[in-house]
Amino acid sequence: MTTLAFGQDSTRFFSPKKAAYSALIPGGGQIYNRKYIKAGLVVGLEIWAYTSYLRNAKYYNQYEEYSGLEFSQSRYLKKRNKYVWWTGFIWLYSMIDAVVDAHLHPFEDVMKTPIENEN
Q1: Neighbour-count burial of 75, counting CB atoms closer than 10 A to its CB (0-12 exposed, 13-18 middle, 19+ buried)
Q2: pTM of the model
Q3: Please, is 66 exposed, middle or buried when counting C-beta atoms within 10 Å of its C-beta (0-12, 13-18, 19+)?
Q4: Which of 8, 44, 45, 52 could serve as 4's disulfide partner, Cβ 3.0–4.6 Å?
Q5: In degrees to the nearest 10, what's the CA dihedral of 111, 112, 114, 118?
Q6: Phi then psi dihedrals of residue 72, to 5 deg
Q7: DSSP code at position 119
């Protein structure tokens, strides 16, 4: 296990900047940080929110063509807009999570390093 000496940069293993660029693609920052379960969750949530958006947008735009829909047209508009916000929120959360995770990656090694400078 590699330990960091006092005064070394704690971001030398994973770059928060590279994690942010990787997070432009949903789940990319988590893959960069080797957090594959988080990446799968982020991608799954993004797919869910996006497909919900598409379904509600289709119902809203083609309301007259569908018979037997359980909600009014304005309700599908509200649901469509809600899922757009969810898509953006999940993407923003994944980006922040990737940057923080990259920055705190060596936290345990830093905490195990003695405070006193060994000479």
Answers
A1: middle
A2: 0.75
A3: exposed
A4: 8
A5: -130
A6: -75, 165
A7: -
> Taking the domains of the chain in order of start, what are their residue ranges?
16-110
Structure tokens at 79: 């649901």
Is residue 11 very low, low, confident or very high in pLDDT (cuts 50, 70, 90)?
very low
Encode pLDDT of 56-95 as tens digits: 999 999 999 988 889 999 999 999 999 999 999 999 999 9
Residue type, 92: L
Cα distance between residue 113 and residue 19, in whole Å: 25
Query: What does the mean pLDDT of the chain come to?
Result: 84
Which value, to the nearest 10 degrees, does the dihedral of the CA atoms of residues 92, 94, 99, 104 take? Answer: 140
DSSP state letters, the chain: ---PPTT--TTSSS-HHHHHHHTTSTTHHHHHTT-HHHHHHHHHHHHHHHHHHHHHHHHHHTGGG--S-SS-HHHHHHHHHHHHHHHHHHHHHHHHHHHHHHHTTTHHHHHHS-SSPP-
